[in-house]
Specification:
Helix content of chain B: over 70%
Chains: A mainly alpha, B mainly alpha, C mainly alpha
Radius of gyration of chain A: 29 Å
Number of helices of chain B: 21
Strand content of chain B: under 5%
Number of strands of chain A: 2
Strand order of the largest sheet of chain A: 1-2
Distance between the termini of chain B: 26 Å
Largest sheet of chain A: 2 strands, antiparallel
Shape of chain B: globular
Oligomer: heterotrimer
Radius of gyration of chain B: 22 Å
Structural class of chain B: mainly alpha
Chain lengths: 681, 498, 103
């Protein structure tokens, strides 16, 4: 490859640019707001251009053929003795679109933040953290080495901690930041163990290194053949450990508890975490080391590790969607929706659909960023109100936000034909349908689809329709141009991306798996595709329709109970008033929804939170114990040691305070000392 | 002997000399008209900078390599690299001199700085005792003058006299030692001396010569017990002069010490492995290294002035570097040279920050650094980088410097049992570098966590000062993340030279 | 015939005398003279070694001495200048009194 070196330079520039911006902004005084924002946005913009250029490079080199073209740039970080630490950068069809997505969404979020954070005293610090966040994420994407990926992975965790707890004056924000950090760290422990184990077995952590990397055939065969405790293959055990880390970052059951709380951060941060960066990292990790997960699998791509991923993904998808139904905070609904969507992606990965997962990841990034920024716009416009029960009729005051939000909502719920979310979800359903192990995940995915449509419609009804239930007299107002323009751009992206992912022209999927895509509308009408499409349209329609009907009449005031929360007698009276269809829904679906939602929510609140709390207790106890030993045993010894050192330092230094000639004597006596030494030896 | 050849080999030094004379000429011409002021400083500084850059350019593009006049002048990749390093350090010192309060006859000050640079370049570029001695003396005399340049300041005068007395006594020791070595080997060329030593064995005459030479070099690199000038000179000298003494002079000193030991004293190493001592220069260096590490780092603990602290820490660092010199292998040599360059860069940067603080607060006590992070954030961040690198924490350059230093020392001189013989020194070094972290953190604590008292002058850094320090800090970070940039060329050059 | 040994003995004595002056005299100028003595001792060595060496026609030792005398002169000049400067501050050239700089 003649022009490979400039690609390598572009690759390392990609994370380094935002990192440099972060460093520069960190050391600039807090009054330099304009410069800080300009540096951050500039770095993001250049990174976006670089990412686009790299994407084109991959596009050009992967034309034709079924081979996946990978460009790796490995280099030695440093040597010690005969061994050396290798690191590397990688560019392939898997990370190229991710790079474009992260930089693009990141850029828009940065621009949006200029307005959103304009009243914040720590404006400059915020931009430093944003830069650090995207630098870490980009580093993670371009890594050709599990260690490098892990370093960036932890940096992502650190940046998320800083950003979620950005409003450190709010105790809830601090708690949420800690929760996010600690929960993901528990998952990372698995990642770390898996990484060390992998290094011990394979002797390298490079992904691709000319046949010797951990994702290449010789190592995979070796790992698949090795047997460890419980008869598990080595590859399976390591994969499961790595998956712990991925599940933590991507908010998979049972690590999902941090994600809804992470809404305490400023809304642009929520958008960044939920769309472009943090949660995508987990899915990306599994996609990146997919060959390892599939090492023990046959041609049908069924292995223990992948089966675990499938079940956890499927369960999370439904479980989180059910919880979302019973939430009233606008961002919290979106948070559970993110968890649920990540479940879909994991599900797709588990059944072997890497392309389907990544396409959905990217489509989701666009429309979820859109939804979060839209929600931010609503919150901003309604005077920092986040409770959907206190909103209503916002449509009339914020038309642009409404229009873009509606597009995002339809993309997320999988409205047919014109939205990217529809096609990417369709593809996931398609691959899950073909899973030979069990049909249950497929049914779960269908249920998740319906629930998604339901809760998004409910949210739309509450926020944008009906009468205003605001407690303050102030009217909502449309956000400034600098906030609405990113919304419009993202909305356009959410629609347009669909073109590349239809079964008729599965360009995007082929791009990731290698090979070329042809236009064939006939594929739309094959029995399987058509049937699935029909089914999912039906379910989406059912979800939307149900919600629309249930929330046709919104509660009159913020304190009035949600239709879902009504006690049974009321439900019966409502039944008498309404039509037959109402009665049917009310009698069957709604209590079920409500119960499922509440049960899931209760499970979430008490069981998982309780477990985390218990664990915290134990850790606190342990740390108290270790503190006592520390103080009694080590500190006292250490202190007296330090005191001796200091005193001897004083004595040594005092020996220098002599007059010139006394000091010159040292030279002579030094010489004599050396002579004696010489003679003595 | 061909004078054209001489001229070509010495072209960078000649350029510097002409520049220095031109600076003095401008100074004389101006003195007739008006008192020296900021304009004179700027003109002299830019002329000096231009001269240095031209000299560097000549070194970069000069095609000649080889040795003439029996090793009097040597040009190979290694000497070129180090001449460039020395020029870069001198350039930073020139920029720092711009930052200090203008003294009278500022042009002379710049010119003498260039003379010192010429001396150091001569030292680096020779393998012969006469040129070595002349170069060392040229460096020394220029530095005495530089240290005493703030003539109205009593501390500067005292520091200069002390530096002069120590320097010239050590020079006398060195010259006496060299005369004995000349007598023993009949030659002043390092290579031939080495051959004679390998053939001759250890005679009393040679032993005396060896010890006295080491005394002379011990002064140059500030190794215990020949270090007693360092704290006073660092404290009393104007900051740019002290910076030059601490960085470039030390680089040149270590470079030539390594060359003399490895080339000239090649047959007289002896052994310093625990339980396996052999007579030779290695055990002498070992004692000096151990003493330097202990004395330097312990004394630094209780210092209240940052320049004194830097002096003692420099003594400690000299001890670290001496350890790897004892290994006497090309790999170890490369690690010493890498370390000394890193040490020079970071110390230079630290002195740059001290210059700014001195100018604003009229002192360099620890308390004078209080609240600096709010007033000059970029400078404070640079100081953080320098000190953390000096303490040897990853991922900064100082960490890799220490890492390579200690690994190469571990690899050499197997003890009777087969274990690494230098283990005792490396362990001592590790303990001492852990201790060193404490006093570096003391300064950083003042900078970042202590608020400035009411009424203390605000630290305002000029553009030049901030940029210079930031570039040095950036270099420290880059070399830490990717040490190969510097280590690679050094290894190649050492491989070619030995 | 004067042997090499006697030259060396004289130079060693000279060096010791110089060192003694440096370490004991309470006058900076005397210290300077002591240093000059030490340098002269080394020069004497060079000349003696050259004269009794294997190839006296190479002139290395003499060359060395000529240069080192010049260097010593320069050093003495700078030293005297520094002593004058310090005299202006302390009104004394007794080295025991120079102790402003102390940790």
């Amino acid at each position: 490859m003649a022009d490979a070196s400039w690609i390598a330079h572009l690759l390392w520039l990609l994370p380094v640019l935002p990192l440099a911006a972060a460093a520069g902004v960190t050391v600039s005084p807090p009054s330099r707001r304009r410069r800080a924002a300009a540096a951050t946005i500039g770095a993001q913009a250049v990174a976006f251009l670089i990412a686009s250029a790299l994407f084109l490079v991959v596009l050009k080199s992967s034309g034709g053929g079924d081979e996946i073209v990978r460009q790796t740039f490995n280099f030695t970080w440093f040597n010690f003795g005969s061994s050396s630490l290798e690191l590397g950068l990688l560019l392939d069809p898997l990370n190229a679109p991710m790079l474009v997505m992260v930089t693009f969404v990141g850029l828009l979020i940065c621009i949006y933040s200029v307005a959103y954070m304009s009243n914040d005293a720590n404006f400059v610090r915020f931009f430093a953290f944003l830069s650090l966040f995207s630098a870490a994420m980009l580093g993670l994407l371009v890594a050709n080495n599990l260690l490098l990926l892990f370093i960036c992975w932890e940096l992502v965790g650190l940046a998320s901690y800083l950003l979620i707890g950005f409003w450190a004056h709010k105790p809830s924000a601090v708690a949420a930041a800690k929760k996010a950090f600690i929960t993901t760290r528990i998952g990372d422990l698995g990642f770390f163990l898996g990484m060390i184990w992998l290094y011990a077995e394979a002797g390298t952590l490079q992904f691709y290194a000319g046949g010797a990397g951990i994702l290449e055939q010789s190592t995979l065969t070796q790992l698949a053949a090795g047997i460890t405790i419980g008869g598990m293959a080595l590859a399976t055990a390591i994969s499961l450990l790595l998956f712990c880390g991925a599940a933590g970052k991507s908010g998979q059951f049972p690590f999902h508890v941090w994600l809804p709380d992470a809404m305490e951060g400023p809304t642009p941060v929520s958008a960044l975490i939920h769309a472009a960066t943090m949660v995508a990292a987990g899915v990306f990790l599994v996609a990146r080391v997919f060959p390892l997960f599939a090492a023990t699998a046959g041609p049908d791509l069924v292995s223990t590790a992948l089966t675990t991923v499938t079940w956890i993904g499927a369960f999370t998808a439904v479980f989180a969607a059910a919880i979302a139904v019973a939430q009233t905070d606008i961002k919290r609904i979106l948070a559970y929706s993110t968890v649920s969507q990540l479940g879909f992606m994991m599900l797709a990965l588990g059944v072997g659909g890497v392309a389907a997962a990544i396409v959905h990841l990217i489509a989701h990034a666009f429309f979820k960023a859109l939804l979060f920024l839209g929600a931010g716009s609503v919150i901003h416009g309604c005077g920092d109100e986040q409770d959907i029960r206190k909103m209503g009729s916002v449509r009339r005051f914020m038309p642009i936000t409404f229009a873009t939000y509606a597009i995002g909502m339809m993309a997320l719920s999988g409205f047919p034909f014109f939205f990217s979310g529809f096609w990417s979800k369709e593809e996931i359903l398609h691959v899950v349908h073909g899973w030979p192990q069990s049909p249950v995940p497929f049914y779960l995915a269908l249920a998740g689809t319906a629930l998604t449509a339901f809760y998004m419609t409910r949210q739309m009804r509450f926020v944008f329709f009906g009468n205003s239930r605001a407690e303050t007299a102030a009217k909502p107002h449309e956000s400034p141009r600098i906030m609405t323009v990113p919304l419009a751009v993202l909305a356009a992206a959410a629609v347009l991306l669909g073109i590349f992912a239809t079964p008729a022209w599965p360009w995007f999927h082929r791009f990731i798996t290698g090979g070329t895509a042809t236009v064939d509308f006939g594929r739309l009408f094959t029995a399987g595709t058509l049937g699935l499409m029909f089914l999912s349209i039906l379910l989406v329609g059912a979800g939307v329709g149900t919600a629309w009907v249930v929330y046709r009449r919104l509660p009159g005031s913020a304190s009035a109970p949600d239709p879902l929360e009504r006690r049974l007698p009321r439900l019966y009276r409502a039944l008498a008033d309404r039509l037959y269809i109402d009665e049917l829904y009310n009698a069957t679906l709604i209590p079920l929804h409500g119960a499922a939602g509440r049960a899931a929510d209760g499970l979430d609140r008490f069981v998982w939170n309780g477990m985390v709390a218990a664990l915290t207790r134990i850790i606190l106890l342990l740390s108290a114990l270790s503190q006592i030993t520390d103080r009694r045993l080590f500190n006292q010894g250490f202190d007296s040691g330090c005191e001796i050192l200091r005193r001897s330092g004083g004595r040594v230094s005092g020996a220098h305070n002599r007059n010139i000639q006394a000091r010159l004597v040292y030279i002579g006596s030094g010489m004599v000392l050396l002579f004696i030494l010489f003679a003595w030896i | 002997m061909n004078y054209i050849e001489f001229t070509v080999f010495l072209l960078p030094e000649i350029v510097l000399l002409v520049t220095a004379l031109a600076v003095i000429g401008i100074d004389c011409a101006r003195r007739g008209k008006a008192a020296t002021g900021a304009g004179g400083t700027l003109a002299s500084a830019s002329l000096c900078a231009a001269g240095i850059l031209v000299a560097a350019l000549i070194i970069l593009i000069m095609p000649q390599e080889g040795r003439i006049a029996g090793g009097m002048l040597v040009l190979d990749p290694l000497t070129r690299l180090f001449k460039l390093v020395l020029l870069a350090m001198t350039l930073v010192a020139v920029l720092m001199l711009m930052e200090t309060r203008p003294v009278r006859h500022v042009g002379e000050n710049f010119a003498v700085m260039l003379f010192a640079a010429i001396g150091m370049m001569l030292v680096v570029g020779t393998e012969e005792l006469l040129v070595l001695f002349i170069g060392l003396e040229l460096t020394g005399i220029s530095l005495y003058v530089l240290v005493g340049f703030a003539r109205s300041d009593i501390r500067s005068a005292e520091a200069a006299l002390k530096y002069f007395l120590f320097g010239s006594v050590s020079a006398a020791f060195l010259l006496f030692g060299l005369s004995l070595i000349y007598g023993f080997s009949g030659s002043t060329e390092l290579g031939e001396i080495g051959v004679a030593m390998q053939a001759g064995g250890m005679e009393p005459l040679l032993a005396v010569g060896l010890v006295m030479t080491l005394v002379g070099f011990g002064f140059k690199v500030a190794a215990v017990p020949f270090h007693l000038w360092a704290p006073d000179v660092y404290q009393g000298a104007p900051a740019p002069a002290a910076a030059l003494v601490a960085s470039a002079s030390k680089v040149a000193g270590f470079f030539i010490l390594a060359k003399v030991l490895l080339l000239g004293f090649a047959g007289a190493e002896g052994g310093a492995a625990w339980g396996g001592f052999q007579p030779g220069w290695v055990p002498l260096i070992g004692v000096m290294a151990a003493l330097s590490m202990v004395v330097g780092n312990l004394a630094a603990l209780v210092q209240n002035r940052v320049r004194r602290l830097l002096a003692y820490s420099g003594i400690g660092h000299a001890g670290f570097m001496l350890i790897a010199l004892m290994a006497a292998t090309p790999a170890a040599l490369a690690s010493v040279l890498f370390y000394v360059v890193i040490y020079g860069l970071t110390t230079l940067g630290a002195f740059g920050v001290v210059t700014v603080v001195l100018r604003a607060r009229e002192g360099d006590r620890l308390s004078d650094f209080a609240g600096m992070s709010r007033q000059a954030p970029l400078l404070s961040f640079s100081m953080l980088i320098f000190f953390v690198s000096l303490a040897g924490l990853p991922p900064l350059a100082g960490f890799f410097g220490k890492f390579y230093l200690f690994t190469s020392a571990m690899g050499a001189q197997a003890a009777p049992g087969g274990q690494p013989g230098m283990l005792w020194l490396v362990l001592l070094a590790l303990v001492m570098s852990a201790i060193s972290l404490y006093y570096y953190l003391l300064v950083l604590k003042q900078i970042f966590f202590v608020e400035a008292a009411e009424g203390t002058p605000v630290i305002r850094a000029s553009k030049t000062g901030t940029w210079t320090c930031s570039i040095l800090a950036a270099a420290t970070i880059v070399l830490g993340c990717y040490p190969g940039i510097l280590l690679g060329p050094i290894r190649l050059a050492v491989g070619a030279a030995f | 015939m004067i042997t090499l040994e006697s030259f060396l003995l004289v130079s060693a004595l000279l060096f010791a005398l110089g060192l003694a002056a440096v370490l004991t005299r309470r006058n900076a100028i005397m210290i300077l003279i002591g240093i000059e003595l030490m340098l002269s001792a080394a020069n004497l060595n060079f000349v003696a070694f050259w004269r009794f060496g294997a190839n006296p026609e190479a002139l290395t030792g003499v060359l060395f001495v000529l240069f080192s005398i010049a260097v010593a002169a320069a050093e003495a000049a700078v030293g005297l200048a520094l002593i004058i400067m310090i005299y202006r501050h302390y009104r004394s050239i007794n080295p025991l009194k120079f102790n402003v700089l102390n940790g």
